[in-house]
TrEMBL record:
This is LLM class flavin-dependent oxidoreductase. Keywords: Oxidoreductase. It holds the Pfam family Bac_luciferase. Coiled coil: none annotated. InterPro entries: F420-G6PD/mer, Luciferase-like_dom, Luciferase-like_sf. Gene3D superfamilies: Luciferase-like domain (3.20.20.30). The lineage of its organism: Bacteria, Bacillati, Actinomycetota, Actinomycetes, Mycobacteriales. Residues 7-252 form the Luciferase-like domain.
Length: 283
C-alpha cells in the first residue's frame, strides 16, 4: 500500500518515460515555488524536508528491489510494490535545483546533477559546487559523478550597445525582480517585495497588481541586471563569461534566450546566436 506517495508517483512517471526515450531522461526537481503550492491548498511547510524524503523514495524506486517500506515525517510507504523498472541503460537522472546550504547537501547526497539558476559569479559557483561535492563524499558517493550544470536566461545581440538597450526595456528589467534580495542589497537598495524576499520561492504573480509591478520594475538597479544571474552580451562576450564558469567547474549549461521578449528580430537573432555559442563552447 502507498500512502501520500508523491515521490513514488514521480518515480513511476520517470521510469515510464525512460521506455519512451533514446537516452536516460532527466528529472529536474527542487523544493517548490509558492505559486504552485499556496493557491492550490497544499502545505508549504518544511519544503526542503519534504524534498529530502521524496528524493529518498525516488532513488529507492529507481535502484531498489522488492516492496518498499518508508516511514518519514511527510511520506509513508508500506510494502509498496514498484514492478515497473527503468529501461535498460536509461535509469532516470535526478538533477537538483539547489542554492542554499541544505539544498546543496541534498544535491550531493541524492543528485546526479546540480542545476542552479541564480548563481551570479564563477566564484560563487565554485564555492557552492564544492559544498555539493563535500556532501557527496560524506555520503560515500563519487563527487565526480554529479554533473555541474547551470540554467541561464540569455539576452544576446550583435553589438554590446544593442544588448544594453534591451536591458533597458521594461520586459527585460522585470527579470531583475527574480534576482535574490542579497544581490539587491549589494546594489545598495532593498528588494521592493521585502528585504528577505526569495524570488525563486516567494513570488506569486496574482498577488501583485499592475501598478505594484510597474513600480517594482522601475526600482530595479542596473547593477542587478548587469552583475546578477542574467547572462548578456554579444555571442563572443557570452562565450567568455561561460568559459569563466567552466573554469569554476561547469560542465553543462542550458541557455534560455529571452531576447525574443523585446522583438521578433531579436528573437530570430537569439536563436542563431545560441547555436553559435554552443558551437564555440564545444571546442
Amino acid at each position: 500500500m502507498l500512502i501520500n506517495n508523491a515521490g513514488a508517483l514521480i518515480a513511476q512517471a520517470m521510469m515510464t518515460l525512460s521506455h519512451l526515450t533514446k537516452r536516460a531522461p532527466i528529472l529536474g526537481i527542487g523544493a517548490g515555488e509558492r505559486m504552485n503550492i499556496d493557491p492550490y491548498g497544499l502545505d508549504p511547510s518544511d519544503p526542503v524536508g519534504r524534498l529530502e524524503e521524496a528524493l529518498q523514495i525516488i532513488r529507492q524506486c529507481f535502484y531498489g528491489s522488492g516492496p518498499i517500506t518508508f516511514s518519514g515525517k511527510h511520506f509513508k510507504l508500506e510494502r509498496a510494490t514498484m514492478d515497473l523498472k527503468p529501461a535498460s541503460g536509461r535509469t532516470p537522472q535526478i538533477w537538483v535545483a539547489g542554492h542554499g546550504r541544505r539544498m546543496l547537501g541534498l544535491t550531493g547526497r541524492y543528485g546526479d546533477g546540480w542545476y542552479p539558476t541564480v548563481v551570479a559569479s564563477p566564484d560563487e559557483y565554485a564555492t557552492k559546487l564544492e559544498a555539493v561535492r563535500i556532501a557527496a563524499r560524506n555520503a560515500g558517493r563519487d563527487p565526480g559523478s554529479i554533473v555541474p550544470a547551470l540554467h541561464r536566461f540569455l539576452v544576446v545581440g550583435q553589438a554590446e550597445s544593442e544588448v544594453r538597450a534591451m536591458l533597458g526595456t521594461k520586459v527585460i528589467r522585470a527579470l531583475g525582480l527574480m534576482a535574490p534580495a542579497d544581490l539587491w542589497r549589494q546594489a545598495g537598495v532593498a528588494h521592493p517585495f521585502g528585504e528577505d524576499f526569495n524570488p525563486l520561492v516567494d513570488f506569486v504573480p496574482d498577488r501583485y497588481d499592475r501598478q505594484t509591478m510597474n513600480d517594482a520594475i522601475d526600482a530595479v538597479p542596473n547593477e542587478v541586471l548587469t552583475e546578477g544571474p542574467l547572462l548578456w552580451g554579444t555571442p563572443e562576450q557570452v562565450v567568455a563569461k561561460l568559459r569563466s564558469f567552466r573554469a569554476a567547474g561547469l560542465r553543462h549549461v542550458v541557455l534560455a534566450p529571452v531576447s525574443g521578449l523585446v522583438s521578433r528580430r531579436a528573437a530570430l537573432y537569439s536563436l542563431r546566436a545560441t547555436g553559435k555559442i554552443a558551437r564555440a563552447l564545444a571546442h
